[in-house]
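haha ok so turns out i had the wrong file open the whole time. this is the CORRECT one, sorry everyone. sequence first:
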Amino acid sequence: MSPTSETAQGGRRLVIVESPAKAKTIKGYLGPGYVVEASVGHIRDLPNGAAEVPDEYTGEVRRLGVDVENDFEPIYVVNADKKAQVRKLKQLLAESDELFLATDEDREGEAIAWHLQEVLRPKVPVHRMVFHEITKDAIRAAVANPRELNQRMVDAQETRRILDRLYGYEVSPVLWKKVMPKLSAGRVQSVATRLVVERERERIAFRSAEYWDLTGTFATGRGGDASDPSTFTARLSAVDGRRIAQGRDFGADGRLKSASGQTLHLDETNARALAAALADSSFAVRSVESKPYRRSPYAPFRTTTLQQEASRKLGFGAKATMQVAQKLYENGFITYMRTDSTTLSDTAVSAARAQVTQLYGADYLPEKPRTYAGKVKNAQEAHEAIRPSGDRFRTPAETGLTGDQFRLYELIWKRTVASQMKDATGNSVTVKIGGRASDGRDAEFSASGKTITFHGFMKAYVEGADDPNAELDDRERRLPQVTEGDALSADEMTVDGHATKPPARYTEASLVKELEEREIGRPSTYASIIGTILDRGYVFKKGTALVPSFLSFAVVNLLEKHFGRLVDYDFTARMEDDLDRIARGEAQSVPWLKRFYFGTQEGDDTAGVGAASDAGNGDGDHLGGLKELVTDLGAIDAREISSFPVGNDIKLRVGKYGPYIERGEKDAEGYQKADIPDDLAPDELSVEHAEELLAKPSGDFELGADPVSGNQIVAKHGRYGPYVTEVLPEGTPKTGKNAVKPRTASLFKSMSLDTVTLDDALKLMSLPRVVGVDAEGVEITAQNGRYGPYLKKGTDSRSLTSEDQIFDITLDEALAIYAQPKQRGRAAAKPPLKELGTDPVSGSPVVVKDGRFGPYVTDGETNATLRTGDSVEEITPERGFELLAEKRAKGPAKKKTAKKAAAKKAPAKKAAATKKAAATKKTAATKKTAAKKAVAKKAAAEE
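then structure:
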């Protein structure tokens, strides 16, 4: 019987998807004979550490989770947090007659389906069920037309996973040894970080240039209206035939790119002199050039263009965009959101064209449907573009959506409908105006205009721009209707000064665009990559700009000098090509991995290996593999890698506890050192700023010896503020069970490094102070905590009003405080630190407030803590709205539920289950190895 029966007569079908939300939606579209359950993402993966590796594996296999000596055989383990779900799936499968693996249709989804099949080991028929939208028709069609697992896609994804594991687990330890512990390197992550660092280097090297020009306001001398204005502005374009220099004519060094006599660089003096000489001049129209204007619609969204446009128009980060899109997809509102394709199905084209006619009229519908060819290399054209789901598009008002989901759906809907509308048409005009100055010089001004006679698709949608000063496509600039020879009068002549600006920092949108244009990584992974470099501290945000930390400078410096190919843009792009060739069956996984990891070996067949042969250190001739590169670390000078000259003999260093600057040799006379603020952008560390930091008291202030211990007491300025500590004698154990920690205490807010005394320090380090005991013999102490001074009696804490009370409060005063009922209510609300305006989602005013965990933004419903790099003074409304959008996309925090105690006999049962699982895993591994070799032989025979 066909597995497509709506009621699955005579049997029970188990359908497995990734997420519970997706399962809930699909369950409503299938008959009662179907059980839909979620795997909740990946159920197994490479081990996260040696502790997860089965005992039979040792050595490098245990460290890497990959047996590099045995054809790179991966060691897969079921994730600890998925074991209960796996048991549930096995139980459901035991009660089922057929299994449908309905994970996403991309490479990662194919791999999840394969892992499910390997772990569950079904004895019933297995079907691969794929769909790109969650609608009733699409789900039923997918059940009716299942396919087999695509082993080539699985192999390509597995190769990618093994490659990323080898890269991360081999290169990251080098960073731990040479830069700082707990750092990470990644195949695409490191290249993305390098892009951000290189842009900051350009900003540091940049030298601004000043240039001047004139703007004239000209009048036609006749009455005007909206279609024919009487005045217009034009900018000076040439003097005596020499073009006036603009910003684009200057290089990053502040000099003109071309020193030829064809370009005139005006300074302020000459610009003002020219303006004065033109004050009484007569002007006339020298030429009018009119050209037809035509603009075609933008292609429907794919993953990267959706991320870029959501950033520009909605203020969403890439991660927030994908989280919201995931919810829209799982609930059946849009098609699959991880796609490289701009193709629309015939059904979608018909739906879009029908809506164009319905909403805008037949005049806006082109005769033939528009088609869009994919521009992304190796795009999976089997996928569709991101569009509203179904054969009839719901308008945003019909969806019932709210907040971020409504706004993102509206964006997708508008873009899709607009893609099937007519071109916008109009005219563009350039007018040249000339006049002669009193000193005989000839001046020419230029004005450009644009009129749109038919808006076409712009009625529905206009794309945003990364540059906030850029003019959008639907902006009109109307000029007067003039002809050559018409006389004009100059109503005003203004002198304008300009300065060239350094290259703009990447935003999430522009970094996504750059990665895609360089063909680095997979577009579907860009959101997680940007999230990773933000979370790891390699990059932080200032407004929407991505700013590299000083730590990332040290990491990129090491990778460029000693692992050059691994962060080379072309090498990384070619590596992506090779992985796609494996997916298409044009190359084999194991030879490729061997060449990448072990390098060129005598007798190697290098055909079809591609970029793996270039995994050298950057000199072009070295063909050693990754293993050789990470083995010989003697040439890497850790101090040199993490040191950068600032000027005036000042050096920036990235140390174990963060970046700092210093001048002179440590322990030498005149040595200076200062910590760098966490939110300081590298291009802001000028010599002048460095001198200011060094001038601040930041060294050790010796306060004297403790009369009891004899240890020296010093005051210091740390990363978290000023504090006092004792210097332990040499030889005092710092680690192990006999380790001794120095007494340390933060200064009160009323104290400073300049005024703190030895007595103050000893009192601070004596805390907590015992105030006395109550009638029941319970001790009461006075302490200084994270949230201020307080009393503590057992588990009962009470706040004090000032730090001085810690030392002054008496037992009677403390007992009087405890005699009062504890204040359960909140204190009076503090006034906001800053107002940011109205949130575009909630419509409520957004303010910055000071909370117990630091400043945060809120609209009264959602709170979002400011990140590293954000400050109350500099945060913009757009950045505030973005933080709130990201917090909403994450959803409410999940409440932890207490687990019931296991039965006493459970451990024995668990041990037996573990033993059985180990045996099963070993058998599965043996079968899998044989199967993979058979597949390899088959592929070789086919080639």
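The first helix runs from residue 20 to 27.
again sry for the mixup
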